[in-house]
Amino acid sequence: MEKLVNIFKALSDETRLKIIKLLEKGELCVCEIVNALNMVQPKVSFHLGVLKDAGLVKIRKKGKWVLYSLESADLFRRFLILSVIEKISDENIKEELKRLEEFKRTQAPRYKSGD
Question: Residue 80 and which of 10, 23, 32, 70 are 20 to 30 A apart at CA?
């Protein structure tokens, strides 16, 4: 029961829902999410931790980068994630997507170093 409560708590925050929607586009590092959400890194890391603890996101290390993506191993969690993604249109996070793309294009060190 506690796992279920943690999942729904994780999904009850607007910032975490935005992070899930951003991760629909693919793996992102913390710096990319920070820029997209226009938030400070500790706050974003907190929200990512809540999502990870709920089993909704996973991490993968690639060199010096820690990349976050949506967890798809568990069918129930995958269904919830897909439901969230379906209900939130790109229009709802238009500004965040714009900042993310601009950051990737101009500043994201992960894309410049060839890592």
Answer: 32
